[in-house]
Amino acid sequence: MQQPKSFPFDIRDVEEQDNEEMLKYFSGIKAKHNIQVGPKKYLLFSDYKNEAENIYNLPLRPDDIFIVTYPRSGTTWTQAIVWLLTYGLDFTAANKTPLEERSIFFMLMHKDLIDELRKVHAGNEEKLKALELLRVPGTVQVAAMPSPRVIKTHLPMSLMPPSLPDSCKVVYVARDPRDVAVSYYHLTSEFQTFKFKGGFKSFWSLFVKDLVYWSPFFDHLKEAWEMRHHPNMMFLFYEELSQNLSATVKRIADYLGKEYTAKQLDELCTYIKFDNFKNNPSVSIDNWKELGIMASKGEFVRKGKSGGWRDYFDADMSKEAEEWIAKNLQNTDLRFPTVS
């Protein structure tokens, strides 16, 4: 058996001034304890400390497929596509079993929140059982998955097992940061883990300072971009899915080595066309609403519109965003697709 590797990065608390700024807006249970990891200072919840080495040493299988994204970049959409391509377009199974059970979220831990919700649902055995499943660390859940595993994570490549992408395939999805910020703002406002209390301008201010979870945004993307020519790395843009779904699905199928007829791929595209996908109960995580993890009126899969950020940014914010993006794309050929 291979000797476990020591986790190579330091883990420290977020600096007091930055943490205080975050806590003005993030009031969720998990938001009380924030950490930064490694030289790039990836901002994560404190429960990551207990799992960092287990994640870094996760045994990989050659047929694993990792979906890696910064949050709100098209993760769920890509998950559904990759799972169906991997499992023979089994729409019946996809409709029957929630996506989060078929494709595990690597590093989803809600211990503090679950302890709180257990009090709310005391006596309801069904809900208590569902809550306990969410307490199980992602590494344990992933280890129990049958092959081939389709695994979702928001962790950057540098915090993943170091044999990636040599050992198995990775699909990395990036999205225009302005659209990411809008979608992430809504998510953090609706999830009990975050409980963001503020307007979009306040969220954007934190976003560009790398004071929201899984940031820094650009370091996250650049790590994968630098690996884009590796045969086991597919780097996708969300905008490719939203603007040319059929061609992008075909590219994903080819990358995964899956052969389907044009008719079969058309059926898949109809199934996962955004409006159909958004209304599919298997991806709406309604059970999280019932458990109290997400606001009852919240939408996990929102509008899916590329360029929708224009409805949220005033002239000053748009100028700031353009300058911030240009600054962070210096000395790299990474560019986001143009959306009219």
Q: Explain this structure to me?
A:
By secondary structure, this protein is an alpha/beta fold. It has one domain (56-328): P-loop containing nucleotide triphosphate hydrolases (Rossmann fold), CATH 3.40.50. Helices cover 45% and strands 9% of the residues. The protein has 17 helices and seven strands. A four-stranded parallel sheet has the order 5-4-6-7, with helices on both faces. Strand 2 and strand 3 form a beta hairpin. The relative contact order is 0.16. The mean pLDDT is 89.
Spell out the key features of this protein:
single chain; 340 residues; alpha/beta; Rossmann fold; four-stranded parallel beta sheet; three-stranded antiparallel beta sheet; 17 helices; 45% helix; sulfotransferase activity
Gist of the model:
One of its GO terms (molecular function) is sulfotransferase activity. With about 350 residues, this protein is of the alpha/beta class.
Write the topology of this structure.
Blueprint lengths: L10 E3 L2 H8 L10 E4 L4 E4 L2 H9 L8 E5 L5 H12 L4 H6 L2 H4 L8 H10 L4 H11 L2 H6 L6 E4 L15 E6 L2 H14 L9 H9 L8 H9 L7 E5 H6 L1 H12 L5 H11 L1 H5 L7 H6 L23 H14 L12
Parallel strand pairs: 4-5, 4-6, 6-7
Antiparallel strand pairs: 1-2, 2-3
Helix pairs in contact: 3-13, 6-7
